[in-house]
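Project outcomes to date are best conveyed with an example. Our students and postdoctoral researchers have been running inverse folding experiments weekly, and each run begins with a structure described purely in tokens. The record below, which covers 392 residues, was selected by the lab manager from last quarter's runs and is presented without edits.
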């Protein structure tokens, strides 16, 4: 008898929803008819389907509750009460929706969501949320009753029950169905083949699905690769990729060498090339002429063309003098004005002025420097830099 009551109540709730929806969508007597709102139709349809789902779940719950313990009757009454209340709530909300739709057809609201007024949208959203919550609770209730009817086998070890957590059980199920489909150890005898290799037997296990899926994916990618690079030709071939990578590598090497040149100091400086010396001559004309003359013959500063130097006459000494200066002797520091590479070029140009003997050269100052080539040692490598010897 209860079963027929259950079906009757659920049918009444469903029909009330459909009737309310039909009432809301019936065209009015006014000559202008509002266009169909598909969002509203979709939400109402989903709500009706959820009512059907709740009805089916209530029947399942009733059947499971009959086999469960003495909580069955109360459980059925509670779920039927929830079903009737839910149906009436949805019917009321659908009726309210139709009323709102009629009013909005006359005076459109300011706030709209997908063509629905804010009141209609949030009313339908609340109904859907409530229905989903009821479905979730019913599923949990059914799951709990199912565990009561079909309890999990408990393994006792050393007098203590051992049960796997739901994470381990879920992983085992996924592994069995999708990942490896491995046969349990207890069933391996059924999968054993007749092949025998010196006592080594073979199982007729299936290949792991993840491996097969990966193999299929590689075939799919190979087809796309063939179409892209060999048929459509809208991608670089290996030679073009190689040339692009070589160009990029060359740019990186050039940038690295440029940075190394800019990192030159008095310990690593060497003579600049011809272009650097020419650039150093330009810097000399801008900066050094007022003190050392246009040809390095000297003036306020010492003569730069003879073999006598106050602070050393090789490239490293000149680089250091230009970079740090000697304020006590009137030579300022130029490291804030010139970059290290520019100081190298300037020092290299000054180095080329030796022995030019310009007219009106200033008298020698400082110590006599003689260029001495570094002697080769048979047991160690020799630096390419020239060494200098100072004599008074």
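After processing, the design step wrote out the following sequence:
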């Amino acid at each position: 008898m209860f079963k027929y009551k259950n079906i009757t109540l659920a049918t009444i709730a469903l029909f009330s929803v459909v009737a309310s929806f039909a009432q809301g969508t019936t065209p009015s007597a006014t000559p202008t008819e509002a266009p169909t709102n598909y969002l509203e139709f979709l939400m109402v349809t989903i709500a009706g389907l959820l009512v059907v789902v709740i009805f089916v779940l209530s029947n399942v719950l009733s059947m499971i509750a009959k086999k469960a313990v003495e909580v069955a009757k109360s459980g059925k009454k509670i779920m039927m009460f929830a079903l009737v209340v839910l149906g009436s709530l949805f019917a009321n909300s659908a009726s309210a929706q139709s009323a709102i739709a009629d009013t909005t057809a006359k005076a459109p609201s300011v706030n709209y969501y997908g063509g629905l007024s804010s009141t209609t949208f949030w009313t339908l959203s609340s109904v859907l949320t409530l229905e989903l919550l009821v479905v979730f609770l019913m599923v949990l209730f059914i799951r709990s009753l199912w565990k009561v009817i079909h309890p999990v086998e408990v393994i006792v070890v050393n007098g203590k029950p051992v049960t796997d957590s739901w994470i381990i059980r879920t992983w085992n199920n996924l592994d069995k169905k999708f990942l490896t489909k491995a046969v349990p150890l207890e069933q391996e005898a059924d999968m054993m083949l007749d092949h025998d290799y010196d006592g080594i037997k073979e199982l007729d296990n299936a290949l792991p699905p993840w491996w097969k899926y990966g193999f299929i994916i590689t075939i799919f990618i190979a087809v796309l690769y063939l179409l892209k690079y060999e048929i459509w030709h809208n991608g670089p071939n290996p030679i073009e990729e190689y040339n692009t990578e070589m160009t990029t590598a060359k740019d990186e090497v050039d940038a690295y060498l440029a940075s190394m040149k800019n990192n030159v100091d008095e310990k690593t400086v060497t003579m600049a090339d011809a272009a650097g010396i020419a650039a150093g001559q330009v810097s000399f004309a801008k900066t050094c002429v007022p003190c050392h003359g246009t040809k390095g013959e000297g003036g306020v500063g010492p003569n730069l063309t003879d073999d006598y130097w106050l602070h050393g006459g090789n490239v490293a000494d000149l680089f250091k003098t230009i970079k740090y200066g000697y304020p006590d002797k009137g030579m300022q520091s130029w490291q804030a004005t010139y970059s290290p590479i520019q100081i190298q070029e300037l020092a290299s140009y000054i180095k080329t002025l030796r022995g030019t003997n310009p007219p009106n050269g200033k008298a020698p100052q400082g110590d006599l420097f003689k260029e001495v080539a570094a002697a080769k040692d048979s047991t160690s490598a020799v630096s390419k830099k020239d060494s200098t010897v100072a004599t008074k």
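Residues 2-27+34-149 form one domain. Confidence is low (pLDDT under 50) at residues 16-34, 71-110, 374-392. The training component of this project remains on track.
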